[in-house]
Amino acid sequence: MGGRDPRAKAKSPASESSVTTTNAASKRNQAKQRMDSIDKELKKAEAFHASTGSDMKELLLIFREDADRRAEAEEKRRREECDVRRAEEKREREEREKVRRDEAALVEARRHQDQEDAKRHVEAAEKKEEAARADRREEEAERRRQFQARLEQDRAEARQRHDQMLLLISTIHKSK
Fold first, then answer.
1. How far apart are CA 48 and CA 110, in angstroms?
2. Torsion, Cα of 53, 55, 57, 58 (10° steps)
3. Is residue 52 part of a domain?
4. What is residue 56's predicted lDDT score, i.e. its pLDDT?
5. How far is the C-alpha of 22 from the C-alpha of 10, rounded, in Å?
């Protein structure tokens, strides 16, 4: 690099302060002061914002805790309502089941009673049929006895007539 000083091209040396300032230099100085002033205001605003930000963070944390507490309370309320609803549904379901079991027991008792009635009816019909058969057997036996008695009587009468005929024939035969 050549041994040249980079400040060599500058219009005025950096260490020299010029007594007479030009309009451009004055504008530069004013702009620099304005930039410094804006920088100070910015730092001041950042410091204020940092302190306000922590206050805001605290408020946000408080609001978040409050919202969490409300959400937990709401969740607890919903769980309790759900538990109450479940208990009510369970009670209703048990009640319906009890009614169903009672109805089933009544139906079963009715069915059993119907079976007993049918069994008694069948037994009564069988007894009636057996009594009718016994009556028919007795009537049949009575008819047979009557028939046998008439038959015996008819035979006795036939023997008697036969004997009379033989007697008559023998008397007729003797008289001749």
1. 90
2. 170
3. yes
4. 74
5. 16
